[in-house]
# Entry
Amino acid sequence: MIGAHVAGLAGHHGERDLDKRQNEADRTRMALRSQDSGRHSMYLATALQGELLADAANASMKRFGVVPTPDNYMLWYEYHAGNNAVLRGTMDVFASNGTGFDDNVLHDLHETFISAAREAEIIRDTSKSIQEALRSLIEVAQRAGSDADDFSASLTRLAARQFGDTKDSLRDLVGQLVQESHKMAGKSQSTTAEIRDSSEKIETLERNLAKALAEARTDGLTGAANRKAFDSTIRRLAGDAMNSGDELALLMVDADRFKRVNDTWGHQVGDEVLRHIAATLKRSVRGQDFVARYGGEEFAVLLPFTNTESAMSVAENVRMALLRDPLQLQLTPPMNPLTVSIGVASYEPGDPLAEWIGRADAALYKAKQEGRDRVRCA
Amino acid sequence: MTPVNPVAQSIFCLLTDDSPTVRRVARRFLEGSEYEIDEAENGQAALDKCAVRLPDVVLLDWNMPVMNGLESLRAMREKYGRQKPRVVLCTTESGVDYIRDAVTHGADDYIIKPFDAKVLRSKLAGVLK
# Structure
């Protein structure tokens, strides 16, 4: 019943993107089957089916801009094989909602439907390293004698806990471990060095885990969020704004005459300019605001709970901050003061996101047309 | 109540969301076409309305007070079967787990908020085919 119903999910919409190639493959297979009445027909059909499925999987991965890694390939192959109706239904939702398949979605899909193997492996490895560190800490603490009794007891308690079944519990555990070691390091002189050494190792593990998760969403040059992070954040914030009815504003910020900077002083100076703008933007906004490098010399800033008027004054602050704290470079010939043009637009619930971004871009264009170094709203 | 301008075969659509903004936007996108619209502000209220008159299609938020969308969906499927009403989940939840659960429990489709007019109309038309 569930299966039949779920199969309908893909069916309701006629030929969905993901289905088109599948239908071609089905037709070809049927044609081949009816032509070939020889004794090898079943074998041939099976072999051909595998090949056609592979083609269909490759074609639709390409259409959605999905990198054909073995993991992704497995997902798409399963989709086109059609044996898992819930997988099909779930992937159809992503295909038809314009969210696309970003790395997080692909990862979750793989974990949910193909196997939990890979993440489990990473967690297992990290857990193992932490356990080793924990064991050596316990040894040190025991050698330190009564001074470290409390510490030793805490460690033993931690070690007895179920280790890292999820990223969060692992992080939680590492956090407690670091805390305990810091406490202990303060208490005992004789063992301080050894304990500091071990707790540093643990902190490094913790940092590596957090860093790997953050890097995928950061622009390497400027340290601002990257385009991928922007695309998912704008959806999330607009969804929240649609639910709550709260205001949400967008600034599109573009460096003035940036091409001239690159042409005159070279790309390294261009890079400095971009880093300076990113830093100025981050300084000029609140913690809940979101700064991203949108592309090239263009930055985007999302301002939750902010109406157009307030967004205009945030933008004006950014513009002024850049004039107040200019980029300090000794250049020949000297560079004119660095300025930006900014376009502002507010989200209206129900607006297509591309249209909203387009309005902010049009306002930015207007600011450029009217002489640069200014703020305009849609 | 008879609509002022009754359409030959109007489609009865129940907008279920605790957000007045979402209900207002969805109503604006659907009104004036073949849809006859009613609203409910949580999963239980939607079930109450179903008991009076079964909608052709329900747009169903996930996170709502009193009764959430998934519970409401399960109750509808238990009581009315899988054909009618058609149910489209409409939520900010975009996790694979959520979508899998909705699909498993008989959602006909799933909209990840925010939606625009085109997405809403095509998804509803899609499940009503």
